[in-house]
Amino acid sequence: MKFKHIDPLESFKLMIQVYLVAALVILLCVFIHIYKQENFSQMPICLSLECIGSFFEKFKLAVDVFDYLIKALLTGVTIFSFYYALKNYISTTKAAKTTIHLTNLNTFKDYLISESQSMKVLNVKKIDTLKWYNLIYPDSRAGELDISDNYKMLINDINLLIEESNNYFLGESTKATFFDYKNHQTQMIKALRKIGIELARSPRNNLKEAEKSVFDIINKVNKEFCGKKGPSLIKKQKYN
Questions:
Q1: What is the model's pLDDT at position 171?
Q2: What are the φ and ψ backbone dihedral angles of 119, each rounded to 5 degrees?
Q3: pLDDT at 42
Q4: Predicted confidence band at 127 (pLDDT cuts at 50, 70, 90)?
Q5: What is the rounded CA–CA span in Å between residue 189 and residue 210?
Q6: d(CA 102, CA 196)
Q7: Considering only CA atoms, which of 240, 75, 74 is closest in space to residue 169?
Q8: Beta partners for residue 127, in sequence order
Q9: How far apart are CA 121 and CA 116, in angstroms?
Q10: Which of 56, 166, 171, 214 could connect to 238 by a Cys-Cys bridge, CB 3.0–4.6 Å?
Q11: What is residue 1's predicted lDDT score, i.e. its pLDDT?
Q12: Torsion, Cα of 121, 126, 131, 132 (10° steps)
């Protein structure tokens, strides 16, 4: 049997009804037992204060049972109230986290589409939006929008690659005496692919425009979605 669709509130109402019926039966049984044991049917009717006091004294067990049943009922209602309130709170919190995640993700997608449309070189179809977003916000589904250290490191790797190529181009590197744009482009394609951006190979004359489009949109995303606690911006390229 499946119980996934059973409403806890309706189930609790049914349990209360069953409990009340059972409590009534128990009280009735106790009352009948005392009534027979004390042989009240054979006693004359007496309405004096002494008789009434004696009557309630002999039914003290029934009163104690009634008191216990009421306390048990109130305890059960209190426990269920806390449970139901907690259940609703958890459900509301999950819904809020899902809303935060979907709203921010859709905003991110719309922003990339809007920005990439103004760039002739960069095609939005070449951007894995979900990969980029999950890289920035790995805990977004939990409602957390903290910038990941992994994303900051990848942006830093791109900057290190730009700095290295700048030194090659300016003759300030101890590793090489010339700028090899093909090698640079290969490394940059690999680095950008980790973010979710597919940079197409292009002749050296088009390299500047292609990279500028990519770096511009990365900087815009970092400014708009990462803020001051996000990664550093892409450095200026001197090798083009």
A1: 77
A2: -110, 120
A3: 61
A4: confident
A5: 11
A6: 19
A7: 240
A8: 197
A9: 9
A10: 166
A11: 44
A12: 0
CA separation for the pair 72, 68 (Å, rounded): 6
Which residue is it, tokens 């101890």? 174
Contact 58, 38 (CB under 8 A): yes
Two tokens at 94? 């999950």
Torsion of CA 222, 233, 181, 238, to 10 degrees: 140
Compute the residue count for the chain.
240
Q: What angle do CA 76, 81, 86 make, to 5 degrees?
A: 130
Please classify residue 217 by burial: count the beta carbons closer than 10 Å to its beta carbon, then call 0-12 exposed, 13-18 middle and 19+ buried.
Answer: buried
CA–CA separation, 145 and 132 (whole Å): 14
pLDDT value at position 193? 92
d(CA 231, CA 213): 18
Query: What's the confidence (pLDDT) of residue 47?
Result: 55
Helix (H, G, I), strand (E, B) or coil at 127: strand
Q: In b/e form, how buried is each residue of 137-155, taking b as 16+ CB within 10 angstroms?
A: bbebeeeeeebeeebbebb
